[in-house]
């Protein structure tokens, strides 16, 4: 087990231990996450941590999405959705929250450095939910070469609709070396199911709240 994997499990466990569920759905999801700690796949720990961060967001009254950035085998940033709590911030999606930390920590670095992309090489962002158009464009601008998502978002996700981006953005992703990739995470299927359920705990009522605002 690598140091980053150990750190991911430990960080997620600490977040779950500190969680005070605001309802039965959150409590049930926390139990499911506790039961899946320690899955052996190479991306499972980082995918799992993104789910835990998403559950923290849902418990706070935000959309249930979390994100983790791994750079050259080290966890260097994490983020979670903070759209409505503690104050309204329309830029505070999980991926953007993680990118804010990453870019502050490495302001002049090349996020595509390394011999390739994937676990332990270069920079990879894991997100519990397929990225929306806003976060997709920011990730394209960031230069991070690998983005891995757990749960698809049929209503709001952009990564499965990359052909619908304006030509400039498609050329930007394709023109980098190594090329930017946006793909489902190679994690245990149960983590994708949990990620979808975490998002679903808040999606309907928050969507309605935003429509009314």
Automatic annotation (TrEMBL):
Instruction: Please name the Pfam families in this protein's record.
Output: dCMP_cyt_deam_1
Transmembrane stretches, start-end: none
Q: Which InterPro entries match?
A: CMP_dCMP_dom (IPR002125), Cytidine_deaminase-like (IPR016193)
**Which branch of life, at top level?**
Bacteria
Signal sequence segment:
none
Identify the residues that the record assigns to the CMP/dCMP-type deaminase domain, covering every copy: 43-167
Q: What CDD domains has UniProt attached to this entry?
A: nucleoside_deaminase (cd01285)
A GO molecular function for this record? Answer: diaminohydroxyphosphoribosylaminopyrimidine deaminase activity
Q: Name the PANTHER family on file.
A: CYTOSINE DEAMINASE FAMILY MEMBER (PTHR11079), RIBOFLAVIN BIOSYNTHESIS PROTEIN PYRD, CHLOROPLASTIC (PTHR11079:SF162)
What name appears for this protein in its UniProt entry?
Answer: Cytosine deaminase
What organism does the record attribute this protein to? Actinokineospora auranticolor
């Amino acid at each position: 087990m690598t140091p980053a994997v150990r750190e991911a499990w430990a960080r997620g466990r600490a977040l779950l231990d500190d969680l005070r569920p605001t309802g039965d759905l959150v409590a049930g999801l926390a139990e499911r996450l506790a039961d899946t700690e320690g899955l052996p796949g190479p991306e499972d720990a980082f995918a799992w941590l993104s789910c835990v961060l998403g559950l923290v967001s849902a418990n706070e009254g935000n959309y249930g999405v979390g994100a983790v950035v791994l750079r050259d085998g080290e966890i260097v940033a994490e983020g979670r959705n903070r759209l409505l709590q503690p104050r309204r911030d329309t830029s505070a999606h999980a991926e953007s929250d993680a990118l804010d930390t990453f870019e502050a920590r490495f302001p002049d670095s090349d996020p595509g450095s390394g011999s390739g992309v994937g676990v332990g090489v270069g920079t990879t962002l894991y997100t519990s939910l397929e990225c929306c158009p806003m976060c997709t464009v920011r990730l394209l601008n960031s230069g991070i070469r690998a983005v891995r998502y757990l749960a698809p978002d049929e209503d709001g996700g952009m990564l499965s609709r990359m052909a619908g981006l304006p030509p400039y953005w498609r050329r930007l992703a394709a023109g980098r070396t190594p090329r930017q990739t946006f793909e489902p995470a190679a994690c245990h299927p149960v983590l994708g199911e949990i990620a979808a359920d975490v998002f679903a705990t808040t999606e309907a009522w928050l969507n309605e709240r935003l429509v009314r605002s």
